Amino acid sequence: MCGIAGFFNPYQDYTKDRKPWQAILTKMNQVQKHRGPDGSGIYLSSVCGFAHVRLKIIDLLTGAQPMIKQRDGFEFALVFNGEIYNMNELKAELLAEGARFETTSDTEVILNGYLLHGKSFVQKLNGIFAAALWDGALEKLYLFRDRLGVKPLFYTKTGDTFVFASEIKGLFAYPGVTPTLNRDGLCELFALGPAKSYGRGVFKDIFEVLPGHILTLDRFCHTDEAYWKLLSRPHEDSLERTIEKTAWLLTDAVKLQMLADIPIATFLSGGIDSSLVTAICAKELKKQGKQLNTFSFDFTDNGKYFQSNAFQPSQDRPFAEQMAQYCNTRHRFLECGNAEQLRCLYKAVDARDLPCMADVESSMLYFCSQVVTHNKVTLTGECADEIFGGYPWFHSEKAFQTNAFPWSDDMAPRQALLDDTLIEDLHMEAYAAAAYEKTIHETPLLAEDSPEEKRRREIAYLNLRWFMATLLDRMDRTSMYNGLEARVPFADHRIVEYVFNVPWSVKCADGVVKGLLRHAGADYVPKEVLWRKKSPYPKTYDPSYEKLLGRQLKETLATPNAPIRTLLDTKKVKAFLNSPSDYGRPWYGQLMAGPQMLAYMLQVNYWLKKYRVRIV
Fold first, then answer.
1. Mapped to the 3 state alphabet, what secondary structure does 573-585 carry?
2. Which residue, among 602, 138, 185, 593, has the nearest Cα to 407 in the 3D structure?
């Protein structure tokens, strides 16, 4: 894993005076150093510059970047963030075609693949990646991103210069790129946040390379094309064959993602998703005489304050203990206290460059900081719920009848603290509705779909494009902020392509949530874990945490120059703080209820001040 950045201007000759441009590239590296604490490098040609910071996972000795190759007197340069899990297979094919390798890195696989096949080689990659490639012969710059957007890649334009970076902060390291927020950006924050529209960076004129897309830039044009799209196809496999194929796809994805030259670990909550990933990893490592490290997360005194509800029916710890024993892993329970959670609330903004999932994100950032002291690579169970239909809204009659994002279908809670003038000016309902309808129109459908199956596809596609993307951003930023690489086997595009087309009667086999996945995992985990009711990522139930947030928000609103003061209604905030919290009715997803609303507003205030955001 790494961080990349750079710039391109076909009307500029950077080699006439290299020092100022090299200094800019160095600064872009410095602000993203957390993504790659093990090394850095820069590359400068006449019209483009690349910056790279490296986290050493594969080819520890010779895999440095930017990677440069010469052919017919022209230079070809690559900076790459991610991992190519099928690199060994691809390398064998390229060697047979006459390619020469000087390293054992997946970076060189991409570069040699391009030299032999051009930009179409990206279609052969199975992995998580965001990359920039300079073709000196064609004088073209290519930017491409993995199919599901696991790895980030942002860009903007200032004058004739195109600027890109793994994180938004990398763009702000380029002179003249400044943090500005317009009405659309405010709608992103308050009508959609902590989600954001795909392809956008919330800040004015900042964009994101779309998942599964490749941008091509040269002197004459800037093109954006999809090299991959999710398609709807008839499902012809029997139930038995579907279970068998799903089991194989998951097992193969996990095995591929165990690729590393250093020890790996897994996150183990005790739920079906992380338990399956852990069981497969542990089994493979056992063949090598190795023991897997596993990690579980919870909050201090949660056993004392936990409140069972429809979203979180039970605690995870007993099931995590059972799985750790069953798989014979070296297990560690990590806990986060109120002080750590509050401190990391603002660090999470630094990591994301945006207000984010409040303590759901800050706690993960803290946990990642603890995991990295033991392992630099971990596999997670993220994305299974979006792919296999694990969330409540997949099963909710309301979600079928409401034309809105099913995890955030009511604007009233989002407006509960906002100033009435701001609410009137933003037209939040219309903004959210337009974002929703855009995705609905993009949903791949089959002509023979029944109205019910059509709606199920829409809900599934909404989850892949929005909710899963938000959680993938959370996972990337919280892990990479700490120099930890987090991998997501369920996000293997082959799994997504296959399961998306499985009928609901099979996906929800026997009427059980994620029934297909449970049947597919029958050989790997005990029945008690296999069939337990879903319980999502934990959050704190300690009432003192909410009081702490309330005090901080009151203090913030009492500060004359606090940016959030112009956006919130002080009377509404006071009334909200005096009312009892309802943990059973989240305003975003399953976990973000009353306390998270307070935390989110604190993040917005910190973000506006820290980034010196100009609102226009």
1. HHHHHCCCCCCCC
2. 593
Residue 252 in contact with residue 126, Cβ under 8 Å?
A: no
**The pairing of beta strand 39-44 with beta strand 48-54:** antiparallel
- What are the residue boundaries of the structural domains of the chain, listed by start? 2-179+200-226, 239-401+453-530
Buried b (16+ CB within 10 A) or exposed e, 25-54: bebbbebbebbbbeebbbbbbebbbbbbbb
Residue type at 612 in one-letter notation: R
Digit-coded pLDDT (tens) for 79-129 = 999 999 999 999 999 999 999 999 999 999 999 999 999 999 999 999 999
Residue 611 has pLDDT above 90, yes or no: yes
Q: What distance in Å separates the CA atoms of residue 35 and residue 22, rounded to the nearest whole number?
A: 20
Which residues have C-beta within 8 Å of that of residue 239, sequence separation ≥ 6? 506, 509
Q: Output DSSP code: residue 161.
A: E
pLDDT of residue 304: 67
Report residue 444 as tokens.
């791949």
pLDDT, tens digit (0-9, with 9 covering 90-100), for 246-265: 999 999 999 999 999 999 99
Instruction: Using alpha carbons, select from 367, 354, 343 the residue that is nearest to residue 600.
Output: 354
**Contact by Cβ (8 Å): 586, 592:** yes
Contact 48, 136 (CB under 8 A): no
Top-level class of domain 2-179+200-226: alpha beta
pLDDT at 60: 83
Q: How far is CA 317 from CA 147, 232, 254, 296, 416, in A?
A: 34, 39, 24, 8, 35
Q: Describe the crossing of helices 493-500 and 451-462 by its angle, rounded to 10 degrees.
A: 160
> From CA 436, how far away is CA 465, in angstroms rounded?
10
Question: Rounded CA gap, 356 and 195, in Å?
Answer: 8
- Return d(Cα 258, Cα 83) in angstroms, integer: 11
Beta strands in 195-316 (DSSP E): 207-208, 213-217, 222-226, 264-267, 293-299
Coil, helix or strand for 227? coil
Nearest alpha-carbon partner for 299 in 317, 311, 314: 317
CB 103 within 8 A of CB 56: no
pLDDT category at 585 given cuts 50, 70, 90 is low
The model's pTM is 0.95
Q: What is the pLDDT of residues 538-564, one digit of tens each?
A: 777 778 888 999 999 999 999 999 999
pLDDT score recorded for residue 558: 94
Upper half-sphere CA count for residue 578 (Cβ side, 13 Å): 6
Cα–Cα distance, 264 to 370 (Å, whole number)? 15
Give the full edge-to-edge strand order of the sheet including 293-299: 330-336, 293-299, 264-267, 377-379, 485-487
Predicted pLDDT at 510: 87
Give the class (CATH, top level) of 239-401+453-530.
alpha beta
The reported pLDDT for the residue numbered 313 is 58
* d(C-alpha 96, C-alpha 218), whole Å: 32
pLDDT: is 104 or 310 the higher one? 104
Q: Is the pLDDT confidence value at 536 over 90? A: no
Size of the chain in residues: 616
β-strand 74-84 against 127-135: which pairing, if any? Answer: antiparallel
Q: What residues act catalytically?
A: 2
What is the C-alpha to C-alpha distance for residues 307 and 291, in angstroms, rounded to an integer?
A: 35
Helices (H) and strands (E) in the chain, counts: 25, 19
Q: How far apart are CA 348 and CA 337, in angstroms?
A: 16
